[in-house]
Design brief:
Blueprint (H helix, E strand, L loop, with lengths): L5 E6 L3 H12 L4 E7 L2 H11 L3 E4 L8 H11 L4 E5 L4 H13 L3 E4 L9 H15 L10 H7 L17 E5 L3 H10 L9 E5 L6 H11 L4 E3 L11 E3 L5 E4 L5 E4 L11 H12 L4 E4 L8 H9 L3 E5 L8 H8 L5 E3 L1 H9 L14
Parallel strand pairs: 1-2, 1-3, 3-4, 4-5, 6-7, 6-12, 7-9, 8-9, 12-13, 13-14
Antiparallel strand pairs: 10-11
């Protein structure tokens, strides 16, 4: 008996875009587009009868934008929503990340025309993301109140580095942006250590992520630049197509070294450099995401004496990366995003005010 096809609802205000996206999706035999609608209100009305497995959502629509539509769907009949945006206008990018915060599971570029050099790569990303998100059977929307209720157990002081901590590194993938937001927003300002982040995200979205986090978390967040020395209280996000490492002198190094786990930037690459150059004087955090990028390297960080933290299954959109880390015994601490922020806050009483290079 043939496997059941993934049912997709396409939401886009442009008739041309709706047809284009539907044709691309249905080029994969595992996908069936059950309907194409032009706006948010029509999408919400259609959900009960169509019962799609995944919704692809444009962000810029006249009646109800992608953020508001996502918010309403997640409040009433939650299911995986993939934002498909062809606009990198700052307003639309902000709405994209607000939609992710509201419950959308991923954001991808709307594929360009067939003659564009990036067409095939963008189509592959769209189709693979839709198919992967169809496997997210339960989309958990953890409110702050729920996380606080789960985080009432006293948080232990971070062991394994104490006052020697010099750096925090964070890896995240699917579902990561809103978790990063919660963690960074929950830290004291100024935070006494630099934070270096690898977030797997579709090409073109990373600057929007940086801008969104910078304006909404209360922490300075910037795109990592080659040769820059990390500073306490600032978060640095790896740019597109760059393997990012932190040297022992606290400087960032961007390179075109090969992808790991099919990814560049790779969490594994970053974490491995931190193990080599900082040893026990670091804290590693692995958040929600598909696959196993960074899991083995978090184990190596722990073996070197660093503090290691993984996100729990209940609050993860996909528990692949942190789940693999937990399975390997890589995580000293496991918790939801608010609890992770609490754990990192405990560093404030232990860490020096200024990161010192490791020699």
């Amino acid at each position: 008996m043939p496997a059941r096809k993934i049912k997709v609802l396409v939401v886009d205000d442009s008739a041309v875009s709706r047809t284009f996206i539907a044709q691309l999706l249905q080029s994969d035999p595992a996908i069936e587009v059950v309907a194409c609608v032009h706006g948010g209100a029509e999408a919400i009305a259609a959900l009960a009868g169509l019962q799609p497995d995944v919704v692809t959502m444009d962000i810029h629509m006249p009646d109800m934008d992608g953020f508001e539509t996502t918010r309403k769907i997640m409040e009433t009949q939650p299911l995986p929503i993939v934002i498909v945006s062809g606009s990198f206008d700052p307003v639309d990018v902000e709405k994209t990340f607000r939609a992710l915060e509201a419950g959308a599971v991923a954001a991808v570029e709307k594929p360009p025309g067939v003659r564009h050099p990036n067409h095939e790569a963008a189509v592959f990303k769209l189709i693979s993301t839709v198919k992967a998100m169809a496997e997210v059977r339960v989309v958990r929307r953890w409110t702050k109140q729920r996380m606080e209720a789960r985080g009432t157990v006293p948080v232990p002081a971070l062991s394994g580095c104490g006052a020697g901590a010099r750096l925090v590194v964070i890896g995240a993938s699917t579902g990561g942006p809103p978790v990063l937001h919660t963690v960074l927003a929950g830290l004291p300002k100024p935070f006494p250590l630099p934070i270096v982040i690898v977030q797997h995200i579709s090409a073109g979205f990373v600057q929007g992520l940086v801008d969104w986090l910078n304006t909404t978390t209360g922490m300075p967040v910037r795109l990592a630049r080659h040769g820059e020395e990390v500073q306490a209280g600032t978060a640095y996000v790896a740019p597109d197509g760059c393997q990012l490492r932190v040297e022992g002198n606290g400087r960032l190094f961007c390179s075109q070294e090969p992808a790991e786990h099919g990814l560049r930037p790779s969490v594994s690459f970053l974490f491995r450099s931190v193990t080599q150059n900082f040893g026990a004087k670091a804290v590693g955090v692995l958040l929600t995401g598909m696959g196993r990028d960074g899991a083995e390297e978090l184990r190596l960080m722990r073996a070197a004496g660093a503090v290691t933290i993984a996100q729990d299954a209940e609050s993860s959109i996909v528990h692949g990366m942190p789940g693999e880390a937990i399975r390997l015994g890589a995580a000293m601490h496991v918790g939801n995003p608010l609890r992770i922020a609490e754990l990192l806050r405990s560093l404030v009483l232990q860490a020096p005010r200024r990161p010192a290079p490791v020699t």
